[in-house]
Amino acid sequence: MWHPQVEALSAAGFRVIAPDQRGYSTGARPAEEDAYQVEFIVQDAVDLMDAVGVADFHLVGHDWGGQIAWLLAAAHPERIRTLSILSRPHPAAFARALTEDPEQPERSRHHRFLKDADAYDRMRVDGLRPLREALETQYVPPEIAAVHIAKLAEPGGVEGAINWYRASGFTGAQTPAINLPTLYVWGTQDATVGRYAAELTADYVTGPFRFEIVEGAGHFIVDQCPDTVSNLLLAHIRQGADGLA
């Protein structure tokens, strides 16, 4: 994930930092579930940018990475130049959708599945078949899906990925509105995020906001539509960079 966007942004002259977050990094897979609480992962991002000497930056995130990006932008807006989120709605919008949209709880059923006591074993069935099927039904190209599957097949990979869900008691309902230039991208075939949650996100951005709908795109829009995503990111980041010049 992100390789086409890293190449496109780098070619446009931007320095790009795309870390593997805890659980997905071979060298950073704490065994304890509590190590995956969102506040720790937000702090990981802050510590990383401090370590590389970057005071402020354009922030991009997808899915769980999008959740962390929303929370990082809320906690440290002074460090964010622009915010770009793919698939994951603003946390408060998502929390509302779970109670106001009859379809959203069913779309989010994987959250319940991954919190079950036997989730680790069920995920490993038949060579990570549940993950393979999820990627296939959400239009991820087979060669890219194979990379994701290989990463989770590493020792501790399944536990690391699932612990993001198991550690999270965070509902997001109290997350404040974001007063930053924000791009939110959502695909019409996203099986996990409905239109209601996506459209509610506008209620929680008080800065300049751009909502891009990609027809036919599923949840893994970064993998499915790499050129579309790269172009949207470049346009948004360039506009933000020009505004700060």
Automatic annotation (TrEMBL):
**By its UniProt entry, which InterPro entries does this protein fall under?**
AB_hydrolase_1 (IPR000073), AB_hydrolase_fold (IPR029058), Epox_hydrolase-like (IPR000639)
* Domain AB hydrolase-1 residues, every copy: 1-223
- Name the record gives this protein: Epoxide hydrolase
Molecular function as annotated in GO: hydrolase activity
Q: Does the keyword Hydrolase apply?
A: yes
Key words, A-Z: Hydrolase
